[in-house]
Amino acid sequence: MSDRLAQVSQHLSATYGRGLLAGEVAIITGAGQGIGRSTALLFAKEGAKVVISDIDEKRLATVEDEIKAAGGDVLGVAGDVGADDFPKKIVDATVQKYGKINHIINNAGFTFDKMLHTTPDDAFDIIMKIHVRAPFRLIRQAAPYFRLKPEARENRSIVNVSSTSGLHGNVGQANYAAAKAAVIGLTKTVAKEWGPFGVRANTIAYGLIHTRLTSAKESGATIEIDGKKVALGIPGANPDAPANAPNIPLRRSGTVDEAAAAMLFLASPLAAYVSGHTLEVTGGSGI
């Protein structure tokens, strides 16, 4: 083994021992449930100080308590990622408590499905606002803590969430597909502009992950947007049934923990030379 390889091995071993994200600070939006919750729990387990946010204050408080009970370091900042004051609110709170930001995980989002010819402007605009404008504004707000001089650099990354809908389109999701395609372009631009500062930016395109967005619409899950309830889910869906996943080689939906593991990989030193990439977490769908 070369001296350089030995040094790298020693460094990674030390990192693993303290956790892959030991001492690093991660902002995770949409952390009240689903993929965001699992990501927050996993990052905290791996030594990160996590700043979690969700529009649902009660769910957020529950996750915050879970992390504290497990010995993690956490700060909860409730709010709507689409609100004009949200980026400054969460960035200021993070820096005030922890003094820095290492990672931003733009996970918050929802679906507002309609066939293209019946999609009203507001259903299109709100999805673009939450899935594209909100991540852009949060990243921009955090710029001073990422565009740093070489001597101040640590492991820093941006992870934005896309979808197979953004890669291939999807029936009934003109708004969602457009937004999830746009966030890939945003991510690649961040990778090119901030790469010279040692910042990595990557996207995860999820396939069928078992969350409230892919559960049966008949279950009644909703989200309130501008005072109106929007139904979530897919009519008649049963992600656990292999027969409903004929185009997925693994013949099943993914779990939120598997989705979170991909987040950890891209944020961790294991992906130190991965930037501008779109990681497909799909069980093989689309190959």
From TrEMBL:
GO BP terms: fatty acid biosynthetic process
Superkingdom classification of source: Eukaryota
Family in the record: Belongs to the short-chain dehydrogenases/reductases (SDR) family.
Keywords tagged on the record: NADP, Oxidoreductase
InterPro entries to which the protein is assigned, alphabetical: KR_dom, NAD(P)-bd_dom_sf, Sc_DH/Rdtase_CS, SDR_fam
PROSITE patterns: ADH_SHORT
PANTHER family, sorted: 3-OXOACYL-[ACYL-CARRIER-PROTEIN] REDUCTASE, SHORT-CHAIN DEHYDROGENASES/REDUCTASES FAMILY MEMBER
Protein name: Ketoreductase domain-containing protein
GO terms assigned for molecular function: oxidoreductase activity, acting on the CH-OH group of donors, NAD or NADP as acceptor; quinone binding
Domain Ketoreductase: 24-197
